[in-house]
Amino acid sequence: MKQILSIFFTFLFFTINAQDVAILKYNGGGDWYSNPTAIPNLVDFANTNIKTNIAKIPQTVEVGSQDIFNFPMVFMTGHGNVYFSDDEAENLRNYLISGGFLHISDNYGLDKFIRAELKKVFPKLEFQEIPSNHPIYNQTFKFPNGIPKIHEHDKKPAQGFGIFYEGRLLVFYDYETDLSDGWEDEIIHNNPKSVRDIALKMGANIIEYAFKN
């Protein structure tokens, strides 16, 4: 087991220096490929404003692939069903506890599926709401009230949830806000520039936090 973890950390050492992010491809029929302009726009914003050096065109990585260990951070979104096999859940768990980071953006309809599948990944862990004083809200950009509201779904408050393992935040889940909608090209959702700027700043904070931790 120690030898396996050593290999994982080696992967992550080179990954963190490369500072690349990937889009997570999952099974179950959900549209993992939704919001195609979101990550490229966020990457461009992060490279400009927090001086990251992320590849402008994000790669796609499958949940069960060893290639996931080539990225310090993976991003996941969608509207529908998510399914992780036992092997995929184990691979994702190993990736996360070895230093990886997963950001999930609920694009409306993902919630009940992702909560069930993450119980396969961490059966004994629960989502915790992240308080506004957590470092993820206090990186280059400050969000004293916690996660901002970007896109309206059910007139519920925006919430940021996390899964912590041995004190480390390794999954961040934005719920009832849909940050990734705010990252997309303006013409797609007609969000004003002020709203898009807020969404991009929060996204940049998530990247900054993931790369530091």
Automatic annotation (TrEMBL):
Residues 21-211 form the DUF4159 domain. Keywords: Signal. Residues 1-18 form the signal peptide. It holds the Pfam family DUF4159. The keyword Ligase does not apply. The keyword Signal applies. SUPFAM superfamilies: Class I glutamine amidotransferase-like (SSF52317). This is DUF4159 domain-containing protein. The lineage of its organism: Bacteria, Pseudomonadati, Bacteroidota, Flavobacteriia, Flavobacteriales.
